[in-house]
């Protein structure tokens, strides 16, 4: 059970928060939410997946210190957040979607609040 909490719970939370980020973005631009959600979300969802794989692989470099835990703020959350942002923006560029500087700043801030914020809250509670 504890292993699934370290994996499944944090993955579900991260996916839901990335989707929420995309829903908020579409709503703020008065775009159809459901009709274009996949179009908006796939770059960030891909970045999120890359971040999870990278965080796991980085943790395997020193497995004797502590088993992988997806709820950790550092380094797990930081790797996942930065990958979601950087890979997401890169995929938006190659797919012809917008990447204005103001959007990058907003995306970095909101994704940090979402992907790092819940981990910081869990850490503070524990």
From TrEMBL:
Keyword Transmembrane: yes
TM helices/strands, residue ranges: 7-26, 32-58, 78-94, 100-122
Domain of life: Bacteria
Keywords of the record: Membrane, Transmembrane, Transmembrane helix
Pfam families attached to this UniProt entry: DUF3054
Name of protein: DUF3054 domain-containing protein
Protein's organism: Nocardia speluncae
């Amino acid at each position: 059970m504890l292993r699934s909490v370290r994996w499944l719970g944090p993955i579900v939370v991260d996916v839901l928060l990335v989707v929420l980020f995309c829903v908020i973005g579409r709503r703020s631009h008065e775009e159809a939410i459901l009709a274009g959600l996949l179009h908006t979300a796939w770059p960030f969802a891909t970045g999120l997946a890359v971040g999870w794989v990278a965080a796991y692989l980085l943790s395997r470099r020193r497995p004797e210190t502590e088993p992988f835990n997806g709820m950790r703020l550092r380094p797990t959350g930081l790797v996942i957040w930065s990958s979601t942002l950087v890979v997401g923006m890169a995929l938006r560029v190659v797919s012809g979607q917008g990447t204005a500087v103001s959007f990058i700043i907003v995306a970095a801030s909101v994704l940090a609040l979402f992907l790092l914020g819940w981990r910081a809250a869990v850490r503070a509670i524990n």
